Amino acid sequence: LEGVVAKRLDSHYQPGRRSTDWRKVKVRGRQEVVVAGYTKGQGRRSRGFGALVLGVHEAGGLRWIGNVGTGFTDAEIERVLGLLKPLERADSPFPEPPKMPRVRRSDVVWVEPRLVAEVEFAEWTREGRLRAPVYLGLREDKTASDVRRERAPLPDVIRKGRRELRLSN
Predict the structure, then answer these.
(1) What residues have CB less than 8 Å from 24, skipping those under 6 apart?
(2) Which of 11, 20, 45, 148 fits as disulfide partner to 41, beta carbons 3.0 to 4.6 Å?
(3) CA distance 158 to 17
(4) What is the tens place of the pLDDT at every residue in 111-133?
(5) What is the DSSP string of 45-101?
(6) Is the pLDDT of residue 60 over 70?
(7) Rounded to whole angstroms, what are the CA distances from 95 to 36, 87, 91, 143, 155?
(8) Which residues of 68-102 are buried (b: 16+ CB within 10 A; e: fewer)?
(9) Residue 76 pLDDT more than 70?
(10) Using CA atoms, how far apart are residues 47 and 20, in angstroms rounded to an integer?
(11) pLDDT tens profile 23-42
């Protein structure tokens, strides 16, 4: 489900007209993630990083779920990079190094997977990647080994148009 339509209580639907009386409120998920590396920054970010490489723990080990490159201030990039530099390592912490679209292997700096961040995102893709993640901050109250993919509980009823679908466990 992409979102919810909200309207002013006293408003009326007006076909063909847009109004501030009706709004679409997008549903966004949140996920704690393990920082497994970063991509080298380019252009304005050449002194920092381009994106953080993200993972979650599963039965087979750490699994890549995407990268996040938005939501950072310049000060936060500098702060996070200062925490990542001492954690750098030569090889990938993933059992199978991910193939990242539009990222050369030489542009990835791997780190010990110890830092936990929180991101907001639009949805999970079929491949198990985060769509449109945005960095919210580091979670210093969590350990990386505790980070798993969060599963949202399904509501008992999902309404689709005039149809009502009842879900059972």
Answers:
(1) 3, 4, 5, 6
(2) 45
(3) 28
(4) 999 999 999 999 999 999 999 99
(5) GTTSEEEEEEEEEETTEEEEEEEE-SS--HHHHHHHHHHHGGGEESS-SSSS----T
(6) yes
(7) 12, 18, 10, 20, 35
(8) bbebbeeeebeebeeebeebeeeebbbeeebebee
(9) yes
(10) 42
(11) 888 878 999 999 999 999 88
Token pair listed for 74: 């310049």
109, containing H or E segment: strand 108-111
Distance CA 26, CA 122 (A): 8
Q: With contact defined as beta carbons under 8 Å apart, do 63 and 148 qualify?
A: no
Q: Give the residue from 147, 152, 151 showing the smallest Cα distance to 57.
A: 147
How many C-beta neighbours within 10 Å does residue 120 have?
A: 16
H/E stretch holding 20: none
Q: Which amino acid is at 80?
A: V
Dmax (CA) of the chain: 62
Alpha carbon distance 85, 100 (integer Å): 21
16 half-sphere exposure, CB direction, 13 A CA radius: 0
